[in-house]
Amino acid sequence: MPPLSAIGIENYRSVHKLFMRVGAVNVFVGNNGVGKTNLYKSLELLQQAALGRITRAVSEEGGVESVMWAGDLKVHEKKRIILRADLGDLSYKIELGLPNPISDPALPLETMVREETLTLMAGRKPVVLMQRKGPSAFLRSSNGARVTYDNELLPSETALASIRDGGQFPELDLVRRALADWRFYHTFRSDRDSQLRRPSPNITTPTLSSDGSDLAAVFATLKEIRKDTYFLQEAVADAFPGSNLLLEANGQDCRFSLQTPEIRRPFPSQELSDGTLQYLALLGAMLSYRLPAFIALNEPEASLHPDLLEPLAKVIAKASERSQIWLVTHSEQLADHIAEHAGAYPRRIYKENGHTGIDGLKITGEFVGEEY
User: Fold this and answer.
1) What is the mean pLDDT of residues 249-275?
2) Name one GO biological process term (predicted).
């Protein structure tokens, strides 16, 4: 899958206009309320475009009017949410807005896909591979022919998710699969009824689900399929010296427990503290059998004891060898540890006059003092 090379966000919540080049490990630190989570959520929305759920996702947030940038717009600026993802030489952009009550076949105040574009940026001149406006779209097929889809797309649908023909439109298929493969992890539930505390079905599970519900199966897959839990056990011992993670796949389900040096019997998942369970879930996300091409973490330090932050940073650095990492945090300590172990300089997010910005970010997408 091509790596994410740049993102663009316009008019989404506190982000008025932002374009940024993306590296292997991307760490953003800032206080509460400056808009860190809005950067994270904008990436989630891009994935929802690939899954065909972006308009529903915006509606679940309150609709376009609720999530639209509330500040002033210049005369030439559209009143639309615009999101862009560059994946290698391919650039996908989607624009969301409200319907024209007279001409658009949509429900009142419904979130609409107004435009979509897929562009090949390689070569001396960009080539438009897909252009969608309203219900119609044209695409350039693999043999260079122009294919037109007239009045076939509903305002709630994306061309990215709806037009599925990898033979004719391989680039569109590549972008859809790349975005759909992303994983987002935002504070796993660890209360008494959390699925983290329950056994997982006895199914080979190469990648942790976003809610962590299959954590025990992810651990069992490392033990039974890869037959190598070295890095997992190393990360456990680093956080809890002298401890060992016991893994079981008994033919009915998968379970795990933590053996500590102080107590003779192991602690099953139901008895682990919230912080310990959160840390183990993050190990499942970062050290699983197969990592997605892109992993986004939103404040992973939540519920963790400060002593766990450096072990977590080491695990994130290890994961970055197999996946692209995007992390937002308000923990200076975690950001510093990641800088030490992964070599990723943390970017500071600020809010000024109601809009979110990133220190040192230039209009070209590079940061001051760096070249891509």
Assistant:
1) 94
2) double-strand break repair
